[in-house]
Amino acid sequence: MGVVNVTPDSFSDGGRWFDTTTAVKHGLDLVAQGADLIDVGGESTRPGATRVDEAEELKRVIPVVRGLAAEGVTISVDTMRASVAEQSLAAGAALVNDVSGGLADPAMIPVVAAAGAPFVVMHWRGFLEGGNIKGVYADVVAEVAEELHARVEAVLEGGIAADRVIVDPGLGFSKGAGHDLALLAHLDRVLALGHPVLVAASRKRFLGHVLAGPDGAPPPARERDAATAAVSALAAQAGAWAVRVHEVRATADAVRVTRAIAQARTADTTPPEPGAHGAEGAR
């Protein structure tokens, strides 16, 4: 999942793709580099970001969705507003990626259910205008899994089909670096919920924490792509459905290598056919 932020203030690339024509071109470039779908968002969800109004979000997102759809690109829309989701789906988006899991806008679940679209349910504890709120856990893996399970149940009760639900552990949202690393280390607990899992680790603060120099200063967000690719490979190996990234080529390559190694492992454990070269060589 390649990221196209149509915003002036996203944490890693704010303003770079704010113009519609530039944003559409960037989305097409990400597809050419190996993205299977493009996630278009018009509102930054970084800690401390101020929400944009509905009209501005629609103005940013809909032309880009329409432009990419016209080129045959599979699109997800990254929004917490039902109106933006509804109009994006009408403009050609295929999937709704709501970081609030439908909690920010009560109309979101009915809109997605009526459209029959896939829906990403992310672990979310509230808006982050005040910083990294409610990030206290006794057992982050167990609590995130439990809270995601409860949210999925609410989404299913709201009419979204079980085979349309995708879950996201919400790395960086009300979580510190240790929390994010623990969730990645125990991704199997999220997979055990029984739904496809989206991992969105790209360029996030916990990677900056891991990569910090001797003085404790993290590298800039755009210098965390190699680390992102490493997480992508590990997530793919663990069974993630998709990884959401800003720089696609390195992650696409990492995932391809992960798949090739998994296939080689399967081949190594498959008994040779009678008369096959391996059996002959054993004589």
Please explain how this structure is put together.
By secondary structure, this protein is α/β, with parallel strands linked by helices. The chain is built from eleven helices and eight strands. It has helices spanning 20-32, 54-70, 82-91, 108-115, 140-157, 177-185, 187-191, 205-211, 225-238, 248-268, 277-281, and strands spanning 2-5, 38-41, 75-78, 95-98, 119-122, 165-168, 198-199, 242-243. A six-stranded parallel sheet has the order 1-2-3-4-5-6, covered by helices on one side. A two-stranded parallel sheet has the order 7-8. Helix 1 packs across helix 2 (54-70) and helix 2 packs parallel to helix 3. The radius of gyration is 20 Å and the shape is globular. Mean pLDDT is 89; it is low at 276-283.
Please sum up the structure shown.
With about 280 residues, this protein is an alpha/beta fold. It has helices at about 20-30, 55-70, 80-90, 110-115, 140-155, 175-185, 185-190, 205-210, 225-240, 250-270, 275-280, and strands at about 1-5, 40, 75-80, 95-100, 120, 165-170, 200, 240-245.
Mean of residue pLDDT values:
89
| Strand numbers in spatial order across the main sheet | 1-2-3-4-5-6
Annotation field: number of helices: 11
Shape: globular
In angstroms, what separates the terminal alpha carbons? 50 Å
How many runs of DSSP E, i.e. beta strands?
8
